[in-house]
Amino acid sequence: MKRYALIGRRLGHSYSQQWFTDLFARLGLADHSYDLCEMPSVDSLRQWVHREGICGLNVTVPFKIDVIAELDDLDDTAAAIGAVNCISVEDGRLIGHNTDATAFSETLPTVESTEAIVLGTGGAAHAVAYALEQMGITPTLVSRTPEKTKTGNGKWGVIGYDQLPSFIFHLSPLIVNATPVGMYPDSDRSPIDPVHLSALITRHSSLVYDLVYNPSPTKLLQMASAMGAKTVDGLAMLHRQAELSWDLFRATEA
Ligand code: NAP
């Protein structure tokens, strides 16, 4: 049996098991499985992977950064981002990769903006900030505790939510939600209040991208759409990062 899994603290929202199960069925891989594995921490990840005979992993909230300490190596992209959402097991060694960044840039529609507000400072925010930088868009991350947050070793600017109204942009910024706020089962929440959001959505060309895909649309996207912004949910990104993860997993089976 080839066992793959998603690890995270709470996984009730996840569509990953369904996506991989459908893929394995389409490919006729009856000896492949993909499980959702909730765990309180990643402290004993290595022992768990070897004991359970796991061939590859995806990583979600809140472990994409902490998991790095448990790995044997990182590929160059994951090292530059400082977050891992995909782990391949190669000759017993755990190798970290990041497929979120490419999945985000490939699913981001063309935007005029040269600046972006990224809500959150966790693993997904790192991947988004890296991807934006590669596209020539300057990211500013927004944190509940900006004074404590050193994202990307200080590479990206971090501000507090209370600083948003006074932040000056040249063009209407791209707005990205990279927090879990609004995700199932807490679907009635938004990471940003309507007053702050409407101050940011100053043009009809504004785009709000929510990495959350369950539910869709999120409360944030419903508000943004009512304010005239274009919106994108996280579903296409979810599928793309899974395809890219499978490419990495498949390479270790060859
Ligand atoms: P994470 O590492 O736990 O980071 C989330 C960040 O959000 C935290 O660093 C925190 O920043 C902020 N945050 C957490 N709780 C908050 C709250 N109650 N209010 C405001 N801000 C809060 O999680 P992640 O792995 O980056 O994932 C974030 C979200 O993106 C999740 O919903 C995940 O499912 C989604 N995601 C989707 C895709 C996709 O393919 N569609 C890919 C990756 C991630 P501060 O403490 O600095 O405020």
Describe the structure.
The chain has 254 residues and is α/β, with parallel strands linked by helices. It contains eight helices and twelve strands. The chain has helices at residues 16-26, 45-52, 76-81, 100-107, 123-134, 194-200, 219-226, 235-253; strands at residues 2-8, 32-38, 54-59, 73-74, 86-90, 93-97, 115-119, 138-143, 157-160, 174-177, 207-210, 230-232. The strands form two sheets. It has a six-stranded mixed sheet, with helices on both faces. A six-stranded parallel sheet has the order 9-8-7-10-11-12, with helices on both faces. It starts with a strand and ends with a helix. 44% of the residues are buried. The model has no long low-confidence stretch (mean pLDDT 94). NADP nicotinamide-adenine-dinucleotide phosphate binds at residues 60-62, 64, 100, 103, 120-125, 143-145, 149, 178-181, 183, 191, 211-213, 234, 237-238, 241.
